Amino acid sequence: MDRRKFMAGCLGLPLLSQVGGARAQAGLSKVIFPFAAGAGGDTLCRLIAQEIAPVLQRTIVVENRTGGDGLIGIKAVKGASPDGSMVLVTTGPTMYLLPMVETAPSFDTAKDFMPVSLLARFEFAVVIGPGIDASDFKGFVAWLKAHPDKTSFGVPSNGTIPHFMGSKLEKDLGIPLTRVPYRGSAPILNDIIGGHISFGITTLADALPQHRAKGVTIIAVSSPERSPFAPEVPTLKQSGIDLVADAWYGMWLPAGSPPEFASKLGAAASAALARPEVSEKLTAIGLIPVGSTADGLSKELAANTAFWQPIVKATGYKIEN
């Protein structure tokens, strides 16, 4: 499989850092983000960087080490000295899906990295177009069963959360579905509006403008509760599908880093995310600020890994490396 088509349900993001621990007393710190700058993740990083730099009294430099669906940046931090000079910020799915789909995993998240904090969540949406005679998820399922030749759906890329959400829906609904990979959400929404595909699974933030303009209809969201960005839309669980699939940004250090430094860094990031002025800017772009302890991040990662592993395994999907 083409590596460049792997990560998409994951937004880009450069972030913060600054560190000061037992083995990092002064100077420069780099935050490695393994994707290009832009979109909501970039805003997230810059906002946090601005807030925590004076708190940690450090110079913060963000580096976008792109390539390999995130592996270039992840490997850079994996091999870095555990002295606080490098911090990894990336999406949760990057850290738990890549080891599942690589034929020979390049890293072990638990062994190669030290957790710091959750940063923010984002959600996915099931989207239909104006040509579909349905107003909710259950009605759409009935429509699919009545039109077995029109079951194609779009995902931002293969090997992503939307990809595996589609696999889960296919199994639970008992309806053969045809997955169509795209390069991002915009062409999916265009083809839904044009009637070229019946539905799509995209980030909620990407689908909201067209939903509000009545170009498409969001019939379900993947979060555990109704989204604050579209409170009128039921969750998949409320629609009878046992599936929760939100995604998130997290922060890690190389394994062996000073625990006291990880705690200080995580506390500074969480405090920044709790500030109203930061929270308002993030919610305006479809991100839900979180912040957590290192233990909170580890539990989130473990829960996501346990949930998605059997689903991913059942698909047989692999990236050759």
Quick description:
Helices cover 40% and strands 19% of the residues. The protein is an alpha/beta fold and 321 residues long.
Structural summary, described in words:
By secondary structure, this protein is α/β, with parallel strands linked by helices. The protein contains 11 helices and 11 strands. The protein has helices at 39-56, 71-78, 92-101, 109-112, 137-146, 161-173, 185-193, 204-212, 259-274, 276-283, 294-315, and strands at residues 28-33, 59-64, 86-91, 113-122, 124-128, 152-155, 178-181, 199-203, 217-221, 247-254, 288-289. The protein has a 6-stranded mixed β-sheet with strand order 2-1-3-10-4-11, sandwiched between helices. Strand 6 (152-155), helix 6 (161-173) and strand 7 form a beta-alpha-beta unit. The longest helix is centred in the C-terminal third of the chain and has 22 residues, at 294-315. It starts with 27 loop residues before the first strand and ends in a 6-residue tail after the last helix.
Detail the topology: elements first, then pairings:
Layout: E1 28-33, H1 39-56, E2 59-64, H2 71-78, E3 86-91, H3 92-101, H4 109-112, E4 113-122, E5 124-128, H5 137-146, E6 152-155, H6 161-173, E7 178-181, H7 185-193, E8 199-203, H8 204-212, E9 217-221, E10 247-254, H9 259-274, H10 276-283, E11 288-289, H11 294-315
Parallel strand pairs: 1-2, 1-3, 6-7, 6-8
Antiparallel strand pairs: 3-10, 4-10, 4-11, 5-8, 5-9
Helix pairs in contact: 1-9, 3-11
